[in-house]
């Protein structure tokens, strides 16, 4: 993993794993079956020195999945301390998105529902809400936010994704309809409701984070503007 920016307060790095769900990750974490040190390597991602960091007490955050059923639980997140700079970094599993409670799977699957409604001439944001569990607290505004972030993330990663997938037919512009654009990306990336799309896409998440050291979706703490 590359060294982190010196001026950031909190550091979130992707924990690249092949667990099918975030719940499998949680079970492995709590049973002590994850070797985070081997995943990070000997070099501290903050100061770039060897054997500098050490594990500290993890923190817990909520994760929500919607499919095949609504599930909400607290998930442990591994944390580490850079001894030389006295700063911490955490490893967020790639099944999650920084600052999102809903899993990447929940977000994309909900957008698929909204896309289906939009293609039928209905309002995609409202249609997606009606299609998920009513106790999920998903709102049209939240679906609209997910669509915006997803399109922005695909645009940011377009060049990198284009190295392994055919994205030549996708032309991202600010005036393009978001549902139309996300449809183009979904189809190119194999996100299709007619097939079991998540395992293939999770492999893409794994590959993207492995090659870039970054999250495909969302902005981690170190890339957010500090306020106050």
What does this structure look like?
The protein has 228 residues and is an alpha+beta fold. The protein is built from 8 helices and 4 strands, in the order βααβββαααααα. Strand 3 (71-82) and strand 4 form a beta hairpin. Helix 5 (140-156) crosses helix 7. The model has no long low-confidence stretch (mean pLDDT 90).
Oligomer designation:
single chain
| Count of alpha/pi helices | 8
Q: In which order are the strands of the major sheet placed?
A: 1-4-3-2
Give the number of DSSP strands: 4
Helix content: 25-40%
Describe this structure in a few short sentences.
The chain has 228 residues and is α+β, with helices and mostly antiparallel strands. It has helices at 22-30, 36-40, 104-119, 124-131, 140-156, 158-161, 178-189, 198-212; strands at 11-15, 53-65, 71-82, 87-93. Strand 2 and strand 3 form a beta hairpin.
Helix and strand layout, with pairings?
Blueprint: E1 11-15, H1 22-30, H2 36-40, E2 53-65, E3 71-82, E4 87-93, H3 104-119, H4 124-131, H5 140-156, H6 158-161, H7 178-189, H8 198-212
Parallel strand pairs: 1-4
Antiparallel strand pairs: 2-3, 3-4
Essential attributes:
4 strands; 4-stranded mixed β-sheet; single chain; 38% helix; 228 residues
